[in-house]
Amino acid sequence: MYTNVTRLPIEKRIDWLFHLADRHGTTFRGPEAWLARERYLAQHPTAIAVLKCMDGRINLPVMTNTPPGILMPFRNLGGAFDLGWPYLGEVLSHHVQGWVRAGRRVLFLVTYHFSKGDPHRGCAGFNYDTQAAYAHTQVIRRQMQQIFGAEHATIYPLICGIETDEDTIIVHGSNGEKLDMSLVTPDEKATLEPRLAALLPDMPAQMRADLLPLLLGNLDTIARVREQAARNERLLDIEHREWMICVGRGFDFLHTPNLALIIGPYSPNLDVPIGKAAGIIQGNMRSGRIPDDGFLLLASVPYMEIGMDKARAELKSLFLARFAAEVVRREHPDLAEKMFIRTAVLDWQSRTLETITENLPNTDRSEMTAASF
């Protein structure tokens, strides 16, 4: 179980991680999982993407009991994104165009997170200021409306809060009201559909119908979390115990909370979230929440096709590993001595994680910036 992994020596934790990736890929490629995804998408055709924080607790597939491969994640420090950044805009536009050409609407869950039990279990990316984090989601929503239109007939940016103590989703409506799933009782499940219609009158009916299963799944998760809390088994899941920094994309196999800080390449100042993540890892070691024998820096980049696309992914992964390692060495030299580095690429079609090794001339670190993408 992952709850015991945190205390293992670092080499065994790394072995466990790659075994986890292998198991996830094997399951993802299996006929049952493939059929489950196909059936789900046939019943719920809306494409759903999630803009969220790098915090390992923000795991929407787990919170909503959604099959792996349905929700498209985008992660950055604090869930802070600027759609004016060229690479992020290109990635979002690429996915949106693909979904729309297939005849699908797109629902973006624009999220912020907080802890109701302790503000310092909230979002470190916004210095635990929930109002600032929420205000930023409104900025992202306005940017999306500027790019994709404000009528929301095809693309809908929906602001959602995540309360991490109970893994609760809070849906913010277009009329200023909100639906807090922690306040919904199991016998009120039948009321969710009309409540969503009142809360989100400008959302297409099919999109609301496809949002509903996520909220129903969240109700089940909240009930399970409360049972864990009653048995005093919840502390591990709400405290920071991350022991790895993941940079890049393709970390869907990490469907376990509080193990990794995941940083997408969606910012021109990529050194900021990397430095912040390293500080969190160092804090975890100093507090005794994780062993101080080492941490993992893992870079991964997905590819769609063999050949040139895969070769470029390998170059990008190597670049990300070098760049992130240099940030850690510069900002946290003591921690850097405990850094284990791995690079990989992910076959997106099969979800196979493939490790790669450095076989290129050393890049001049003075020329390495996030703008190199």
Write up what this structure looks like:
The protein has 373 residues and is α/β, with parallel strands linked by helices. It has 2 domains: 45-236, Beta-carbonic Anhydrase, Chain A, CATH 3.40.1050; 240-372, Carboxysome Shell Carbonic Anhydrase, C-terminal domain (60s Ribosomal Protein L30, Chain: A), CATH 3.30.1330.140. It has 12 helices and 11 strands. The strands form 2 sheets. It has a 6-stranded mixed sheet, sandwiched between helices. α7 (192-199) crosses α8 and α10 crosses α11 (308-331). The protein is globular and about 55 Å long. The two termini are 37 Å apart.
What's the structural blueprint in terms of helices and strands?
Elements: H1 2-5, H2 10-29, H3 31-43, E1 47-53, H4 60-64, E2 71-76, H5 86-101, E3 106-114, H6 130-148, E4 155-163, E5 168-172, E6 178-180, H7 192-199, H8 205-230, H9 235-238, E7 244-248, E8 260-263, H10 271-287, E9 295-303, H11 308-331, H12 333-336, E10 339-347, E11 352-356
Parallel strand pairs: 1-2, 1-3, 3-4, 7-8, 7-9, 9-10
Antiparallel strand pairs: 4-5, 5-6, 10-11
CATH architecture label name of the largest domain: 3-Layer(aba) Sandwich
According to DSSP, the number of beta strands is: 11
Low-pLDDT parts are 359-373
Structural class: alpha/beta
Concise synopsis of the structure shown:
By secondary structure, this protein is of the alpha/beta class.
Task: Give descriptors for this structure.
373 residues; alpha/beta; Beta-carbonic Anhydrase, Chain A; 60s Ribosomal Protein L30, Chain: A; six-stranded mixed sheet; five-stranded mixed sheet; 12 helices; 11 strands; 19% strand; globular; disordered C terminus; Carboxysome Shell Carbonic Anhydrase
